[in-house]
Amino acid sequence: MVNGARGPFDPVDRRRFMPACVFVKEALEAGRYEKNLRAIRAALVVPQDRGALDAGLKAVLDEVRVSLDLGALNGSVHRWWISACDSVKDSGGRRRMCAKAEQIAVGKLPLGGSLGGKS
After folding, report:
1. Which candidate, 46, 21, 39, 41, places its Cα nearest to that of 97?
2. At residue 39, what are phi and psi to the nearest 5 degrees?
3. Which of 31, 14, 9 is nearest to 81 (CA)?
4. H or E stretch including 13?
5. Which pTM was predicted?
6. Tens digit of pLDDT for each residue in 8-66?
7. CB 86 within 8 A of CB 20
8. How far is it, in rounded angstroms, from Cα 113 to Cα 103?
9. pLDDT tens string 74-96
10. In whole angstroms, how far apart are CA 75 and each of 15, 18, 69, 71?
11. Exposure of 95 by Cβ count < 10 A (0-12 exposed, 13-18 middle, 19+ buried)?
């Protein structure tokens, strides 16, 4: 490499091409991302995600109060942790996805099609 430039298959850069499940597995094994609600909420880059986390947390806690089973809470935290890892990995992509979802919800875009950067 010239002047320390990184190639497309450098271990740092290859993360761009990893499926989310591989990235999450590596993050968990390396202990890079804390799996608690404070860290998860802080990692979410779009307001819609933070609002959905808050609403989902309220619903799952109501369920736990009735069932006294923490499995639902553990599952919810795990799913939001995966979203938080995705948000950290590709914050621009997460923002674009939420913007497109909002456009579809208000009828400005047809349902279906590409979620890519250009449409």
Report:
1. 46
2. -70, -40
3. 31
4. none
5. 0.63
6. 444 444 444 445 555 555 665 565 667 889 889 988 888 989 999 999 999 999 999 99
7. yes
8. 13
9. 999 999 999 888 888 888 988 99
10. 25, 23, 11, 6
11. middle
